[in-house]
Amino acid sequence: MLLDLSDRQSQLLFLVTRFLARHHPTELHTPVDEDVAEGIGALAATFETASRGVIYDHRPASILAERLATALRPVLEEAGRGTGPGFERDAAVVLRRIAEAISEVRAVDQTNRQAFLDLLRRVTTLVPDEPGDEDLSAPPRLIVP
After folding, report:
1. Are 95 and 37 in contact, with CB atoms under 8 Å apart?
2. Rounded distance between C-alpha atoms, residue 18 and residue 12, angstroms
3. pLDDT of residue 27
4. pTM > 0.70: yes or no
5. What are all long-range contacts of 40-44, with beta carbons under 8 Å and residues at least 24 apart?
6. Does 66 fall in a domain?
7. Does residue 87 lie within any of the structural domains?
8. pLDDT at 51
9. What is the pLDDT of residues 100-142, one digit of tens each?
10. Furthest-apart CA pair in the chain: how many Å?
C-alpha cells in the first residue's frame, strides 16, 4: 500500500487507516468492508473533482458508507489545512489506494465481511492512542515475516 507514495501521502494513509480502525458509529450498525470501500470511493471522487477545480460532493448509496464518509471528511480537511496545493490530489490517491487494498484483502478472505477492518485493527493496536499510553514493560507485538 505504501509503494510510490510521497511523504504527505504516507502520512495521510496512516491517518485514514487509523481512523478506519477506530471508527465505531454504533453497536447496532457496524460497517463492513463494502461500506468502507463505498465511502472511501465517494470521498476519493469528491477530492478528485475538487483537484480539477470543480466542487461536487459525491455521495455513497449505503447509509453506513455515507456516515463513514461524513465522519472522515472533516479529519482529512483538517489534515489538509495549510498544506498548500495538491492536497486534494494526494487525498484522492490515498483513498483509491485504500480501496484497492480492501479489494485485495477481500479476495483473499471472502467469507469475512470485515477482513480489511480486522486487519487494520490488528495492525493499529501496535500504535498507542496518545503519547505516554505505551507500556514499555510489555514485549513488542510486531511480527516481522
Report:
1. no
2. 10
3. 66
4. yes
5. 40/16, 40/68, 40/69, 40/72, 40/95, 40/98, 40/99, 40/102, 41/95, 41/96, 41/99, 42/66, 42/69, 43/69, 43/72, 43/73, 43/76, 43/91, 43/95, 44/91, 44/92, 44/95, 44/96, 44/99
6. yes
7. yes
8. 92
9. 999 999 999 999 999 999 999 888 775 555 555 444 444 445 5
10. 52
Closest CA to 89 of 44, 134, 32, 132: 44
Instruction: Note whether residue 43 is domain-resident.
Output: yes
Domain with 117, as residue range(s), is 7-124
Specify the number of domains making up the chain: 1
Distance in angstroms (rounded) separating the CA atoms of residues 65 and 99 = 13
H or E stretch covering 70: helix 63-80
Degrees, nearest 5: CA angle 65-4-121: 40
Q: If you count them, how many residues does the chain have?
A: 145
Instruction: Quick: pLDDT tens for 21-43.
Output: 888 777 677 889 999 999 999 99
Whether residue 88 lies inside any domain: the answer is yes
- Residue whose cell numbers read 494526494: 90
Q: Three cell numbers at 23?
A: 471508527
d(Cα 130, Cα 66) in Å, to the nearest integer? 28
